[in-house]
Design a protein that fits this description.
mainly alpha; 90 residues; 0% strand
């Protein structure tokens, strides 16, 4: 049996045992099996294929922005304009 492809089998036929059967975990963070199930055409996978609890892209970006703000010495536009090399025009 090819371990890299999903196959429809019947337990007891062609030496297939219960130990050969894949148990799908919808909460698995690795999407490999979930993607394979999604590509099935016959039979079609039904039910919940993926339900991994992860942060949204927006939330991860917000956390990065908050972390950089916390480390920055620039708190307002005046701080930005007066940072680095500054000179006065008279």
């Amino acid at each position: 049996m090819n371990k890299c492809r999903l196959q429809v089998v019947e337990i007891g036929k062609n030496g297939v045992t219960i130990d050969d059967i894949l148990v799908h975990d919808q909460y698995d963070l690795d999407p490999t099996i979930q993607m394979m199930l999604g590509k099935l055409t016959a039979p079609v996978a039904t039910g919940v294929i993926r339900s991994a609890q992860t942060q949204t892209f927006d939330r991860m970006v917000e956390e990065q922005i908050d972390a950089h703000k916390a480390q920055s010495s620039i708190r307002c536009v005046d701080d930005l304009l007066n940072s680095g090399d500054v000179f006065e025009i008279k």
